[in-house]
């Protein structure tokens, strides 16, 4: 009997959703590479809007941790407040209403907390999770690295923003490609990933 074919992790606009997790004011000075993470997440948001990929936004205890930072560009999105260290309970109704959903693209903070737990909850629902590694961080770079390794062990895909963007658009003949090309013309800002992976790459094998 042939072995089951492993999931390839293909991403298509019609079966994907973008999750933006807890990029709030009180985290601004505590999260490593916070400006870079938000910049990349904003890029993902713009692409999602161009390709009509739905977007969901959460805020962790906004009364104490403040609103989503304005540079993320989420005007027009209604943030869902939560206290759980996972986005899934707050977005349960949204997930249930999308039977065609296959892939979740995940950006935000913190990697070892809400990103990890959201990933596990989504995997448990049978969804593919694509962690946008250059749009996720933590206060501690050790926590960030080990969380990425842990998510990969559990079956999530680790992807860069540009890799996912090009998968979503699919073809240079796409009517939105020229607009998207403008967004990715400059490489994503450095968020310390190269040094992180080089220093501890055995965790990611």
Automatic annotation (TrEMBL):
GO terms classed as biological process: protein destabilization
GO CC aspect terms: cytoplasm; nucleus
Pfam family, one: Isochorismatase
Domain Isochorismatase-like span(s) in chain numbering: 16-162
InterPro entries membership: Isochorismatase-like_dom, Isochorismatase-like_sf, Isochorismatase_domain
SUPFAM superfamilies: Isochorismatase-like hydrolases
Superkingdom per UniProt: Eukaryota
Record PANTHER family: HYDROLASE (PTHR14119), ISOCHORISMATASE DOMAIN-CONTAINING PROTEIN 2 (PTHR14119:SF3)
Subunit structure of this chain's protein: Interacts with CDKN2A.
Family classification: Belongs to the isochorismatase family.
Protein name (Swiss-Prot/TrEMBL): Isochorismatase domain containing 2
């Amino acid at each position: 009997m042939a072995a089951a074919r492993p999931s390839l992790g293909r991403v298509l606009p019609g079966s994907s959703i973008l999750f933006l997790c807890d990029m709030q004011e009180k985290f601004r000075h505590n999260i490593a590479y916070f400006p870079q993470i938000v910049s990349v997440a904003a890029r993902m948001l713009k692409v999602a809007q161009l390709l009509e990929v739905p977007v969901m936004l959460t805020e962790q205890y906004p009364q104490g941790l403040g609103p989503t930072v304005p540079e993320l560009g989420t005007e027009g999105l209604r943030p869902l407040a939560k206290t759980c260290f996972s986005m899934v309970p707050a977005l349960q109704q949204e997930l249930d209403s999308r039977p065609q959903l296959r892939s979740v693209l995940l950006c935000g903070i913190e990697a070892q907390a809400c990103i990890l737990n959201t990933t596990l909850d989504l995997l448990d629902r049978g969804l593919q999770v694509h962690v946008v590694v250059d749009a996720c961080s933590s206060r501690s770079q050790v926590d960030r690295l080990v969380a990425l390794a842990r998510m990969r062990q559990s079956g999530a895909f680790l992807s860069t923003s540009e890799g996912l963007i090009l998968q979503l658009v699919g073809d240079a003949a796409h009517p939105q490609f020229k607009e998207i090309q403008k967004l990715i013309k400059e490489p994503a800002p450095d968020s310390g990933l190269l040094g992180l992976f080089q220093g501890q790459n055995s965790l990611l094998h």
